[in-house]
Every structure is written in structure tokens, then in C-alpha cells.
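Input for the complex:
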Amino acid sequence: MNNRSREWWTGFLFILPATILFIAFVYYPFAQSIYYSFTEWDSIRPAKYIGLDNYAYLLEDSKMLRAGMNTLLVTVFGLAIQNPLSLLLAVLLNRSFRTRAFLRTAFYLPVIVSLVVTSIVWGSILQYDGLLNGLLERIGLADWSRDWLGNSHTVFPTIIAMTQWQGLGYCAVIYLAGLQSIPQELYEAAKIDGANAGRRFMHVTLPLLMPAITIVVFLTIIGGLKLFDIPYVMTGGGPGSSSYTITLAIYNAAFRENTYGYAIAAGIVLMIFIMIVTLIQLRITRRREVEI
Amino acid sequence: MDKLLSKRRDRVGLASEVLLILVALLFLYPILYLVLASFKEPGQFYDPLAWPNSFYLGHYEKAFAKVNVMSGFMNTFAISAGSIALIIIVSSMAGYIIARMPHKFFQLLFYFFISGMVIPLQTGMIPIFKMGVALHLIDTRSFMILLYTAGAIPMATFMYAGFTKSVPREIEESASLDGYGRFRTYWLIIFPLLLPATGTLIMLNIYGIWNDLFGPLLYLKDPAKMTLMAQVVQFKANNQSIDYGPIFALCVMATLPLIILFFFTQKYMMRGLIMGSVKG
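Predicted:
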């Protein structure tokens, strides 16, 4: 064996474990999924080929459509509210003052506590005889109190609010990192040119923050579209199907109703959707990125 | 005039700082409430502003009586530690080769890993479940470790490849003059130099693995193998008339190790997020 091919084989051995694991647990199951999505399959009896029926049924399934609506709502709210809010927070936290370390920790803590735990705490706070209603009563707003998670009108807005609380710190930290990578000289130069704070933000901060914005928007979209733990623990999707998300609906279709082929088809549609949305997003935000 | 302006700015700064602190306390409140309520006697449990009367441990005793907390902790710890060790080993080897060997095959593999990132877990879960059954790996901690590792490979390989490129080639060349082979060079020289990347990866992965519910929910049915998060959810589901006291106690115990870790590694964690997100 000559030297070069021996080199290649050594490299191959180095990369083999990662490749095997990745094929076994990502690509192989995925390939199987594509096949099963065209079948009627309960995982016990053999799969029966039914063509595109699963995909067609997706459009008639009111539970799935509700789940899709909710999933979109979480994502849109994340982009419209959490995103600018976390940028504002990062700008405020970027100045130097005494309590900065405490504040950063405080805003970040909800991120490291598991969604299971935060869902349980919020579940207890929001239940009918829970803390929030008690507080409202005490300050004379008893009319406002309601069964936040048991009411089909309030349950999903409440869950959205919770996701905002949970993810704000994470986005803020990424923005903070982006802010810190902007050289101070640029601000000084802009100041000398007579740019006020607003213009400095629009013409220096925002353009140079584009890479961070790309990442945060990307993470918000992926996180929103895959939301599972919070509704699973807090409401189980109820009441009715009012707090269903796509991933929860897929989980239930597979493991509660044993309609595996259908669940997989929904998963594949979700994947294609995620791919299209993130590709469009990356195209839009990447184009605005500038180099220093 | 200047003095006046800076005085005004000071006041604005102070006002915004106070406001931020207030918001932060509101923000922290649910977590504070969780910890405090877990020590409150049942009578004051729902009193939102009350400090615990006494250091009441009844909820913890109940939680310990009904849930095998030690086993949950050991399972969670074993799965997290095992996954992270395996992620580090397989990804650093792959990343090193991708950074150092220009051969097309290895570069293609890189894109192969990256493209796999868009496949959501949910599409593969049923075939993975079936595979676990066929290989007699379902309900084992090893299966969870393999799964988490596979999921983390793209990101970790990406980072290790980036870091390897910043290590000067001369170091390896002199090692090879000393008669070191590829493997010894990697293990004794390169791997130690990649320590910052390794630290970052630990920080980026440990919270996700420790806190994960989806994996254990699907692939660990045996109560003896359950992780802390699965135990919490199971315990809540079994409590028909929800008695939040012991559930809160269990939540505190499941979260505490991560909070302690966070306080010790906060600085590296932030740095890790910066490297992992903005520059990765």
C-alpha cells in the first residue's frame, strides 16, 4: 500500500464511528420513514401501501390543522415579540453598570431550567385556584381571573407567553455576543460624523448585528416549529385540541392512536416546511450581513 | 451644560437599571416560587408572597417515598456523561480529519453531516423505536447515549473542524518527524489543544441532554431506567388530584445540579454560546 492510500484509510477509520452513528440514527430511519409515510401501518401488522392517502388526509384532519395553526402562531409571535424584545434587553445589558452580572444571570436562568420543570411551575401558577388568580383577586381584579389553561380561548396565548419568557434570555445572550463583537471605534467615528444615538443604532449596530439576527431568527423558527414539551406537560394538548402543536399531534397520532404511517407523513411535511422556511430566511437575512 | 447633560444621563441610566432589576425579579419569580414553595407547609403553599414558615421537608420526604430519586439521578447522570464523552471522541476525530485531509471524500462527508441537521427527530422516531426493539437496545441507557451522540455530531464536528484549522500545521509536522503516527499525533498533541472547543461543546450539550423529555419518553419505559425528567412527568401523571408539594420538591432536585453547574461555569457558558452561535 502506498503512503497516500494508507493516509486515506487512516482518515477513513477516524471518521468511521461518527459516520456509522449518523447513518444508523439519522439517515436510515429517515429513509425508512419516507417509505412508511406511503403506507397504512400500525407497527404490528405489515405496512400496506396506500400511496398519497396519508398526505391527503392531513388536509382534512381538523386536529392537525389546528396544530399547524398553533405552531405557526408560536413561531410568528416569537419573531414579532421575543426577537425585538431580546435585542432591546441585550442593548440594555451591554452597558456597564454594577448589577450587570446579576441581571444577566437572572434573565438566563429560565433557559437552563428544563421545560418540564418550568411547565409544571407555570401550570401550578396558572391553574384556577393557583397563584395568578389569587394575586388578581388580591389587587381587586377578580374579574380578570379565569381558568387560563382550561379555557380554549386563553390556553394557547398563555402557552405562547410562556415560550417567550423561556426563550428571551437565550436570544438576548446571542445578541449580547453580537453586540460585543462590534468595534467601539465605529461608534466613535459615527459620533464624530454627527450621528445621534438612533442613527448610530440603525446604521452601525443593526447592519453589524445581522449575523446574530440570522442565528436568532433561525433558532426562533426551528424552536417554534418543534415545540413539544410545554403543551405536552401543561395541557396534553387540551382542552379539546386547542393547545395542540404539530409535534404533539404527531406524537399522539403515533403512540396514542397507533397510526404510524400517518404520523410519519405529518413529520415529513413538517420537515419540508422547516427546510423551505429556513432556506428562505437564510437567504433574506444572509444577504443583509456585512463584513467589517 | 456638559455636566448637566451627564447628570441627566446618569439619572436615566439609574432609572433603567432599577427598571431592569424589577423586570428581572418578575422574570425570576417562577423559579424562586418553585424553590420556596417546595419548603412551605401545605397550608401556605399557595400564598404567593410568603416566606416559608419553617424549613419544612415534608414534600421532599413524600417525593422520596414515592419516587426513586437516586436511581433517576444516576440514570440522568450516566446518560449525560456517556453521551458527552462519546460526542467528544467521535466528533473530534471526524472534525480533525475533515480539517486536515483535503481529499474530496472527507469534504463530502462534512456536507453529509450538515444536511442531516434539518431532519427533525419526529420523523425518525418510529423506525428508531423499531430498530431499538430489533437490536434489543430499547430501554437501555446505551441506546439513549448513541441517539444523543448521533444528534450532536453535525454541530460538534463543525466546531472541531473549525478549531483544528486554527492549530498550526508545523506542530503536527514536527510530531511526524519524531515518528508519531496519525493516531498518536491526534490523541497526544491535537486533542489537548482542542480543549476550549471541548469545553464549549460540554456546555452546549449538557443542558439539552439532562433536560430532555422526548427521548426518555419514547425509548425508556422501564421505571428503573427513567431519567429525572421522565420521573417528574410520570409522577405528575400518576397524581390524579395534583398535590404540587412533592412534585415541586422533585422538580427542585432534578434542576439543582444544573443550576449549581451553571453558577460555576457561567463565564465559560457565555463564552461557549458566543463561539457556538455567532462564530460557529
